[in-house]
Design goal:
The complex is a heterodimer. By secondary structure, chain A is mainly α. Chain A has helices at 10-27, 32-57, 79-103, 113-138, 142-161, 166-197, 211-228, 238-244, 247-272, 278-300, 304-320, 331-363, 379-393, 399-413, 417-442, 460-474, 480-486, 493-496; strands at 60-63, 74-77. Chain A has a domain at 276-447 and 455-502. Chain A has 18 helices and two strands. A two-stranded antiparallel ribbon of chain A has the order 1-2. The model of chain A is unreliable at 452-456 and 492-511 (pLDDT under 50). Chain B has a single domain, classed as Orthogonal Bundle (Helix Hairpins), CATH 1.10.287. The model of chain B has no long low-confidence stretch (mean pLDDT 88).
């Protein structure tokens, strides 16, 4: 045991905390919000504990019940998984606060049905989802990957349906069916991987042996993950689902759920990437297609939340481009950039969906054309949206800038000029569609004079959205520590070309 | 032709039929049935991959995969049917 959090292993806290809280939320719905908030705080504590432990001692492996792989199942935390867990905990805490602001903590006299159902059902679903996400980031077992993705998928569908409108129910149903197809592909691929290697723990998967069956299996799993991560052209279920959900659910779906599948695809690709030229080209085309199509749709749509959702399609495409750098000399820098972009996008997109939620609350609609006339009460949210847009576009000093910079640096050193051009183009396009919204906020005539009274007070949700947006803006300045963190134990492609291709999963094993 | 080949090709055929039906149907119920057919196909392939020749016991690990897959499928189908019912209820109230 290398580190403890209140006498517990932080991994236990991360897995069992949300699971217990979620169950308790269902059992005692009256205090659902309180229990959920406690679960969120516990998860933040566990993430901090694990972060400290990994930063001090390097990667940590826990063998469950003392059984070693391939027979047993190990939980493994290295820099990358802790990075993702910390990101999840941070955004989870922010979204938690937002939903307390939106739906309240306890029953009050003027409770509406929306507030009641939001408060009662959001928390158990979010807690279960959080447990699934934490488990996914800690797993080294590819079959557990399927199981954890299933937990994430089912709760994410339920969160989509939480809005209760027909649009959201239709979107949830489509999400569920497409997610199930993705899961079945992953299951099939996992079985092929098992046939090729005879084991299901990642430390037993090697690039060298059984290249052809392993590559087929990897492609099947990646196709499944691409559906779940909404990678173009398999993104079609996503904009409806993300735009029709409630604001906290949209933020979680877009910031965290999509990243979970991307993370898994990255992990598996770094371990199993075959030595071919064709696949990187394919990924490059998918990424470029996502950027063009997502930006085009974001430019065309009339609805604010739809714009934000299509921007996710484009941004996921941008991150997918990193798969196309495989085999070039400075792919490592590009990978670090892509991981940082995941963080930047997660924070900025969560801020943006929360801000959009607040704007819709105040305006009563989400037509982009109607954004010129803002009541005073909507201005903090508009400010948050603008700041988040700065990070999404990738202007300095935002986290998005650092991520894009590293990605570009890797591509320039590797002399993949087509991809460099695509990344540049994505910046121009994202500026264009974001200016549709931000430009309207900046117009002078935007101020109606009839609401100069006390309606301009701040809500908790505004504060949360602005806090997240500012976090994304200034995370570019303090990027050294997070970037150092993701290198701890990470199987970077530079290392994958040499003999020690497989991450050493036995480092720092307990007991 | 060994039994595992028969199972594997049946599985591939079922997946193909299911994917086709999923792509061309607009009815939610059809889509749910189509996904179920796909999953039966995936299950057949998994079972076929467990085959280790006659006289030898089958590999239990893929069989465990199939069991988990069935559990997931049952739960997901139930959730999907609930969603369909709810959409129907909402449609009914809209008509009135």
């Amino acid at each position: 045991m290398t580190s403890e959090f209140l006498g517990l292993d932080p991994k236990t806290v991360l897995l069992m905390g949300p699971l217990l809280a979620g169950t308790l939320c269902l059992l005692v719905p009256r205090i659902s919000a309180l229990v959920g908030l406690l679960g969120t705080i516990t998860s933040v504590g566990g993430a901090v504990g694990l972060l400290a432990a990994v930063a001090n001692d390097g990667p940590i492996t826990t063998q469950l019940a003392g059984w070693t792989p391939p027979l047993g199942i190990a939980l493994y935390a290295d820099g990358l998984s802790v990075f993702m867990i910390a990101m999840t905990a941070l955004i989870g805490a922010a979204v938690g606060l937002f939903s307390v602001g939106a739906w309240g903590m306890f029953a009050t006299a003027n409770d509406t049905a929306t507030r009641l159902s939001g408060r009662t059902y959001f928390w158990p679903l979010w807690m279960m989802l959080l447990a699934g996400l934490n488990a996914l980031y800690l797993t080294t077992d590819i079959f557990n990957l399927f199981v954890t993705l299933e937990i994430i998928g089912l709760t994410a569908v339920a969160l989509t349906a939480l809005a209760g409108s027909r649009t959201s129910l239709h979107a949830a149903l489509r999400y569920l069916i497409m997610g199930l197809v993705g899961s079945l592909l992953i299951l099939l691929g996992v079985d092929y991987l098992y046939s090729a290697f005879g084991r299901v723990d990642m430390s037993g998967l090697h690039v060298g042996e059984a290249p052809v069956p392993a590559t087929i299996a990897l492609l099947i799993v990646l196709a499944g993950l691409a559906i779940k991560a909404a990678v173009f052209p398999l993104h079609f279920w996503m904009p409806d689902a993300h735009s029709s959900a409630t604001a906290p659910a949209s933020a979680i779906l877009s910031a965290l759920v999509v990243k979970a599948a991307l993370y898994m695809a990255m992990r598996l690709w770094l371990i199993l990437a075959p030595d071919t030229q064709a696949l990187p080209v394919l990924f490059g085309m998918m990424g470029a297609g996502a950027i063009l199509f997502g930006s085009f749709q974001a430019f065309r749509t009339r609805r604010l939340k739809m714009l934000v959702a299509y921007s996710t399609v484009a941004q996921v495409g941008l991150i997918t481009l990193v798969f196309a750098t495989t085999g070039t000399i400075d792919a490592e820098t590009a990978w670090r950039g892509a991981v940082y972009l995941m963080l930047a996008h997660a924070i900025a997109k969560a801020a943006m969906f929360l801000a959009a939620g607040r704007l819709i609350d105040e305006l009563g609609h989400d037509r982009i054309a109607g954004l010129r006339r803002l009541p005073n009460s909507a201005k903090p949210a508009a400010f948050a949206f603008g700041i988040a847009a700065v990070s999404l576009i990738g202007l300095p000093p935002s986290a998005g800038f650092v991520g894009k910079w590293l990605l570009l640096e890797g591509m320039i050193t590797g002399q993949i000029w087509v991809l460099v051009a695509v990344v540049m183009l994505s910046t121009v396009l994202s500026t264009a569609y974001m200016m549709r919204v931000v430009g309207r906020f900046l117009r002078r005539e935007a101020t109606p004079t009839d609401q100069s009274d006390a309606s301009g007070y701040w809500r908790l949700g505004d504060g949360v959205a602005i806090g997240l947006a500012l976090g994304a803006l200034f995370l570019g300045l303090g990027s050294a520590q997070p970037l150092a963190l993701i290198e701890i134990g990470m199987p970077m492609p530079a290392a994958a070309l040499t003999e020690t291709a497989v991450p050493e999963l036995t480092d720092g094993a307990d007991s | 032709m060994t039994p595992d080949i028969i199972y594997a090709f049946t599985g591939i055929g079922l997946i193909g039929m299911g994917l086709y039906r999923l792509a061309v149907s607009t009815q939610a119920l059809w889509q749910i049935v189509a996904v179920n057919v796909i999953s039966v196909g995936v299950g057949s392939i998994l079972i076929a991959s467990a085959y280790r020749g006659s006289g030898t016991a089958a590999d239990p690990v893929p069989q465990a995969f199939v069991l988990t897959g069935i559990v997931v499928l049952v739960a997901t189908t139930a959730a999907a049917l609930c969603l369909v019912r709810r959409i129907d209820e909402l449609a009914d109230t809209d008509d009135i």
